[in-house]
Amino acid sequence: MRIKAKSSRPKLGLPIVVFSCLFFFIAGFFASAIFFQDAPTVKPRLRLLEVVNEEGHKSIPHGESGEDAIGSIPFQVLSWKPRALYFPNFATAEECQIIVKMAKASLKPSSLALRKGETIESTKGTRTSSGTFISASEDKTGTLGYIEEKIARATMIPRAHGETCTMDLGLHCHRTSGLFAWRDAGDAR
């Protein structure tokens, strides 16, 4: 008859092993957060508006609607929610003046959505802005079409998927809205 010898080491139970693993995992997680809290954040590479052919960047064969050169556009994210981007020097002062001149010719007072019981006469003088919609086909100089192409390149959304340009002139220092918001230079307030 054989006699079983008793082990001098006590057996670790499953709960103790699970608890130990969980403890060391949590301790490691918090320790790594302490050591790497000053890690530098990666900033997105700036994109430039000009088409560039830098040494080291070779363009590859492109499709029928593609471009033969590598391009980049500088921008700054002003807000993620709602999404707002700033493109410095996106349009020149001359381009802006051409568009403003074209829009001024067709400005009309903004209309109101009347509530039940309201009439046009009772809301006269309520609107403080004038606006117009213009499309690139109305621009004989081609400036608006050129700007729309730049917008398409910056947003990666084809020009055909865009909308007509909205011009809104706010009067009496009220806020304006629209793609190209501007103030009348004659209004010094």
From TrEMBL:
Q: What is its main location?
A: endoplasmic reticulum
Q: Where are the transmembrane segments?
A: 12-36
GO MF, one term, reads: metal ion binding
InterPro entries, alphabetized: P4HA-like (IPR045054)
Q: Which UniProt keywords apply?
A: Iron, Membrane, Metal-binding, Transmembrane, Transmembrane helix
Which PANTHER family would you find in this protein's record?
PROLYL 4-HYDROXYLASE ALPHA SUBUNIT, TRANSMEMBRANE PROLYL 4-HYDROXYLASE
The name this protein goes by in its record: Prolyl 4-hydroxylase 9
